[in-house]
Amino acid sequence: MLRTREAIETRRSIRKFKSDPIPVDVMDALLDAARLAPSGCNAQPWRFKVVKDKETKLKLAEAAYDQPFIAAAPVVLVCCADIGAYLEGMVSGTEDLGKVGAVEERVVQIIHRAVAGMKSMPVAEIGPRIALNVAIAVEHIALRALDFGLGSCWIRLINEQMVKGIFGWDDNLYVVALLPLGYPAETPPPRKRRSIEEIVL
Ligand SMILES: Cc1cc2nc3c(=O)[nH]c(=O)nc-3n(C[C@H](O)[C@H](O)[C@H](O)COP(=O)(O)O)c2cc1C
């Protein structure tokens, strides 16, 4: 098994995949890694559609402004935020944290007010605000995938409405990203990164 440092250093965006399928228990391990991610108030708003059929993958590739390699991956994860579940989870999660003394009653009240405020927002504004929670879970998957020799590539260049249309989803689901997954058929070199000096303010 890779150490975290090695996983972080060796991960690459993979855009060429072998056709070998991903075993079900491996997919379960990846989803388990997502499940364990941290989230605001432990609300756990992430939801995943596991897409394996060719026709749907082709539609997803098209909804990603025609990035054809997406359809060639054995699995494409559609990574979403469930807005209703997030708002509910914020309240119940904060109350749980309150019960174990992790947050004060004052904070629980602040969260209640924040949730009430979010409920009065247009739903289209809530998705982008909570996407960050899903992003953490997606990166857990991308890193855990390396333990099984799998590669992936974040896809955010997507037409969200087109993706939702493929599955008939309503505005309660916000599509955060696609994550094609499969055994790599390429070994890309490390891509350029900024130095520490450049990123420290
Ligand atoms: C939020 C996000 C969105 C991205 N969207 C796309 C995408 O739509 N298509 C694509 O080919 N790569 C996409 N990428 C991959 C980046 O191009 C890649 O991470 C970057 O070039 C660094 O390369 P590396 O991941 O191999 O280190 C995305 C990455 C992130 C984190």
User: How many helices?
Assistant: 8
**Quick one: overall form?**
globular
* β-sheet strand percentage: 5-15%
Distance between the termini: 35 Å
The side-by-side strand order for the widest beta sheet comes to 1-2-4-3
Mean pLDDT equals 95
CATH superfamily: NADH Oxidase
Q: Just give the CATH class.
A: Alpha Beta
CATH architecture descriptor name: 3-Layer(aba) Sandwich
Number of domains: 1
Rg over alpha carbons: 18 Å
Query: Structural class from helices and strands?
Result: alpha+beta
Say how many strands there are: 4
Question: What is the string of SSEs from the N terminus onward?
Answer: HHEHEHHHEHEH
CATH fold naming: NADH Oxidase
Low-pLDDT parts are none
Strand count, sense and closure of the main sheet? 4 strands, antiparallel
Bound molecules: flavin mononucleotide
Proportion of helical residues: 40-55%
